[in-house]
Amino acid sequence: MADKEIYDTVIIGAGPAGLSAAIYAGRATMDTLVIEANQVGGQVTTTSVVWNYPAVEKIDGTALMNQMQQQAANFGVQIVHDQITDYELEGDLKVLHGRHDYYARSVIIAAGAKPRELSFPGEQQFRGHGIAFCSTCDGELFTGLQVFVIGGGYAAAEEADYLTRYAKHVTVISREAEFTCAPLTAARALNNPKIDVKFNTEIVRVTGKDYLETAVFKNNQTGKEFSYQPDSSEQTFGIFIYIGTQPATAKLTKILNHDEHGYLKADAALATNLPGVFAAGDIVVKPLRQIVTAASDGAVAATSAEHYVTALKQRLQIPIERKQKSATKPVGQTTRLAEKSTAIVHQGSWFDAKLQQQLKSIFERLSQKVTLQVLSDSSQKSQELQSFVKEFCDLDRHLDYQVRTATGEENFLPLLELLDQQQNATGIRFAGIPTGHELNSLVLAVYNLAGPGQELAPELIERIKALPVTKIKIGVALTCHFCPDVVSTCQHMAAINPNVSAEMLDLQLFPELRQAKHIMSVPATMINDRPVIFGSQTAEQLVAACESATVK
């Protein structure tokens, strides 16, 4: 094992529990690694506003997780993306199997939980075509439509309130006789004039062709059913499901003690039944699953792991040499920029002083020129895109822009495409104005073309280079925090392989595409006109999907 790096602790999951554990472990100068399969920040990043985190009156869920991630990075903690598929947790040396093998003296399981499904007829069929689980990602796509929220807890009440900024009307469907959350949270739904609440009610089934067309509900006291159908002008409606979570304990329930629902049992020190294995956050049996309790769990688990590892090293006569590690770069640091909202008709500066400083610090690492070419028509959006690009390019000498009148061959305008130093098209395009979260995608595209670029596993790079002609389109909403990771990964592939093109499309601007592909959820990835892939995807998953889409 001499050539294998052995960590003091490996933390599975980068939600509030995992990041809190990383902060405490890093501050204790433990050699720490965090492994995250999906989005850093976990379920909190799907929360529109966090109202109950101590000392913070309210904060965007993604912003809160970004701050936690930065704190962990400041203590030298590294985060990698991988899916752990098997565990060897007995003995003094733990082994975690994923795309790579990871070795640790202690392990903290903080993999969290995923949204629970109801399994009613039509639920899977219409996922992405009307059924959704993230209001901040998909809410914008239901602008002017009727929306149903299924659930009666914290998330249902809060997200129903949030969805009223887009939906014509929101109806909460709760099987309980009242909300199960705190009265103040429930009041956000009960007192909102755009929300109706139907208690003692359950969803029975949904039907439709390409979109949701009918939903049937039942009063669980009387047994009486009733249905909803949109009028002809609306065509469809939305259903957002918030009924709790299911723990991510696959492969773990065979080796760790758990309850009947799969949640892991842990003692007051958050130790499981195996020495050196700890659990924290939503994955643990406990009465309250909130961000603050997850953060507390992370702190306790990391402290317990430190005590365990110290005793283990003393027993094995391994020198205890700890020193503060240098700060690391947070995963996707360049994709976590200050956000700026965009009105329908933009006025004033696109980038405030804080955002300009963030961007300039990234662009300092550019070594080649990039030209941002606008394909313009006579629309107001084209004028806005031109002003956005000009202001963006003024931030660094490596950035230049030019405007070309569209020829009529382009289906989606206005269009921004990136040209390399030799003025060659790179296949990287943005249909619409890449503001909101999609500013992150543009910055990363420039960084990958003209700077050091993001790191990718060497074997993945070779697979990308081997791809034949591959055309990728990613439908996004500018409010979606999952979309930039998919867009930037696909565009990174285009930067590596000239056979690959990757185009971001703001679906709010192109309703005809949404209708043609029956898209009601983002990110919506379309590869060579194959069926739409909905949801967040890792680099490995996207490369595999491209390989599958190009097989003859």
Could you characterize what this model shows?
There is one protein chain. The chain has 552 residues and is α/β, with parallel strands linked by helices. Helix content is 27%, strand content 23%. The chain contains 13 helices and 25 strands. The protein has helices spanning 16-27, 61-74, 135-138, 154-163, 183-190, 291-316, 353-363, 380-393, 439-450, 458-465, 483-496, 511-517, 539-549, and strands at residues 6-12, 32-36, 78-81, 86-88, 94-97, 101-109, 113-115, 131-132, 146-150, 169-173, 195-198, 201-208, 212-219, 225-228, 238-241, 245-247, 277-279, 370-376, 399-405, 415-419, 425-431, 470-476, 500-506, 524-527, 533-534. An eight-stranded mixed beta sheet has the order 19-18-20-21-23-22-24-25. A hairpin with a 3-residue loop joins strand 12 and strand 13 (212-219). Helix 1 (16-27) crosses helix 6, helix 4 (154-163) runs parallel beside helix 5 and helix 9 (439-450) runs parallel beside helix 11 (483-496). The radius of gyration is 24 Å and the shape is globular. The two termini are 43 Å apart. Homodimer. InterPro entries: AhpF_NTD_N (IPR044142), FAD/NAD-bd_sf (IPR036188), FAD/NAD-binding_dom (IPR023753), Ferredoxin-NADP_redctase_2 (IPR050097), Thioredoxin-like_fold (IPR012336), Thioredoxin-like_sf (IPR036249). One of its GO terms (molecular function) is oxidoreductase activity. Its cofactor is FAD. Residues 471-542 form the Thioredoxin-like fold domain.
